[in-house]
Amino acid sequence: MTTHSFSSKRLTIIGVGLIGGSLARALRRVNACGEIVGCGRDEAHLKRAVELGVIDRYEVDPAVAVSGADVVVLAVPLRAMATVLSQIAPGLAADVVITDVGSAKGCVVEAVRSVLAERFCDFVPGHPIAGTEKSGVEASFAELFDNRSVILTPVEETDSNKCARIRTMWEAAGANVSEMAALHHDEVLAATSHLPHLLAFSLVNTLASLDERKEIFDYAAGGFRDFTRIASSDPVMWRDICMENRDALLEVLAHFNNGLKQLEEAVHDNDGEAVLNVFTRAKVTRDRFCG
Amino acid sequence: MTTHSFSSKRLTIIGVGLIGGSLARALRRVNACGEIVGCGRDEAHLKRAVELGVIDRYEVDPAVAVSGADVVVLAVPLRAMATVLSQIAPGLAADVVITDVGSAKGCVVEAVRSVLAERFCDFVPGHPIAGTEKSGVEASFAELFDNRSVILTPVEETDSNKCARIRTMWEAAGANVSEMAALHHDEVLAATSHLPHLLAFSLVNTLASLDERKEIFDYAAGGFRDFTRIASSDPVMWRDICMENRDALLEVLAHFNNGLKQLEEAVHDNDGEAVLNVFTRAKVTRDRFCG
Fold first, then answer.
1. What value of ipTM does the predicted structure carry?
2. pTM of the complete model
3. Which residue of chain B is at minimal alpha-carbon distance from A282?
4. How would DSSP label each residue in B183-207?
5. Domains of chain B and CATH, by start
């Protein structure tokens, strides 16, 4: 483990779930924080996080939780972001840097701009491209971000020193950090993450409505399990992502529907060559990029 | 390893790939065969199978390969089945039982009936619900069928003793064997296997056509890799499956399209409750059946 320039006297995580809990564990691993304070709506859950050694202590009042913190991480569902921001605003220290881990960034930038107003510059929008289909602090682990990508989407007003600080935080957690524009992030993630989740949820929901559902799932093999794994993800979190990144999601879904329609027609018309072309191009592409 | 009643003096496998090779390895594990003979179109591939100890020897002429065999397993793509059957027909022994591993069964039953004619009763249609996205004998392994399902779809004419023999063969290979009607099998597998493959191939093909494809795949995380793993499967094999199980595939695809259309409308209409209902039902269903 290399030495990182990141250190925090008090780091507060709002939402100590899979992502928030794993970040806390990863930063502990390199002794980057004097103290890690947790906050959330469920006190039993926060107690469990203390027992597991993920956080040092917790507060149930968000404004108290961020008091004296030099770093605040918002790890809550996207649609809870604005409410949480307004709750923490009164307690924020002057030198604080605030960041988030939301899977869509355009909506977060808008929400933070309107809630934080003149302190908007203290906020660094971020998104670690990591996770599992599991939820909650029990599922968190220190290695979640090792060699994974974190995308920061600073805007013109963002304090560049604070952005650099969040970059070092994620590097200390093991991640590779890059930057891009929020709306571009949202297009890329709609394609690579949000659409696959929508399709997986939709497929399982449709199969669950068929008369043969019991047999269908009884005979599901490894391929089906892998394909539908993401349909075991947290429904509220993913509802928020799909609604908050609606435009980019609907756009890439339209592309998908066009492609699927063409493939369906090829199958219907018994055009094996066209079907083989699609399958071959897909295999070559996936083997190259994910092989 | 329990003792199984299956034994074969000479078992011939036409198509020594992932499935054929794994079956050979699984049967060797329990010393079920006096000799395992391989056959296929690529002699270098067959030599490799001998080197790996998967088969004892090979023949390039299918009729010679099945000569003296008491069990013949056809592990070739669905659309090669009729040709291979007509090639082996002259060499079949009187007491032979022939089976296949094709992923669709209605088409196989039809093809075999027309090619084998009065010897149709010697054929037991079968499908091991197991596999990986990899292909070829190098990817084969003895444990592939352990505790996995094998579905046999005998028809009225099928010799019941021969069907029982193929059941014990798969049990010796570690699998759990059940029986169902061929067309019912095809409906269930269209839902649980063929449609997911179609969707995965289609998604990767569509994303590969987008301008941002490089970035899309660069930022693909574990969820995307799992979701698209089956798009690395053998294109010819899957072209054959989709074309040969066309009716059942198009029917379940129509259900899928309806469900996706409703979900798309809910996202478009900002109906978060409807989206959450779909996601929740999918998660509950998957956790129950695949958890």
1. 0.91
2. 0.90
3. B205
4. HHHHHHHIIIIIHHHHHHHHHHHHH
5. 8-180 (3.40.50.720), 184-290 (1.10.3660.10)
